Amino acid sequence: MIRKAVIEDLKDIMEIIRETIIEMHSYNNYQWDENYPQEKDFINDIKNDHLFAAESNGKLVGFVCINEVEPSEYTGLDWCLKEPAMVIHRMAVNPVYRKNGVGTSLMVFAESLALQNKVRYLKTDTNSLNTKMNSLFKKCGYSFVGEMSFLGKESPFYCYEKILK
């Protein structure tokens, strides 16, 4: 089940972030660290109704932020469409629940949410070293658009798009 996240979810969200950062750093992906994302980012997402939580048997197992906020770094990339898009940010799945379709479910949810809001275009990005998210985007039918510098990180971020039917 996927639902809007609430403030009471913060403890579980931050634990998933902590575990995800440890894992990312184990393969030299420093996309996330002590500076980003922070609890305040998720509080803001929740207050704006942009954060969604995936649950399994009453336990929060993943989350995603979905909104229409495009990073300024997206400017200059060769996006297919010049129309409003929903953007996928800050997505993670509890490592214990990976390979159970949680990530795919969150991506499918993003598509449904976009269509409910009469938006037929999705954009997203991830660090080039984040092999798991890059694979998930490709598996879910996203097309590679290009790369950008982001968050002052050394390695580039890969940008993706998907036009919904």
TrEMBL record:
Keyword Transferase: yes
Spans through the membrane: none
Keyword Transferase included in the entry's annotation: yes
InterPro entries noted in UniProt: Acyl_CoA_acyltransferase (IPR016181), GNAT_dom (IPR000182), NAT_camello-type (IPR050769)
A Pfam family assignment: Acetyltransf_1
Keyword field: Transferase
Name of the protein described by the UniProt record: GNAT family N-acetyltransferase
CDD domains: NAT_SF
Entries under SUPFAM superfamilies matching the protein: Acyl-CoA N-acyltransferases (Nat) (SSF55729)
Source organism of this protein record: Clostridium tanneri
Domain N-acetyltransferase span(s) in chain numbering: 1-165
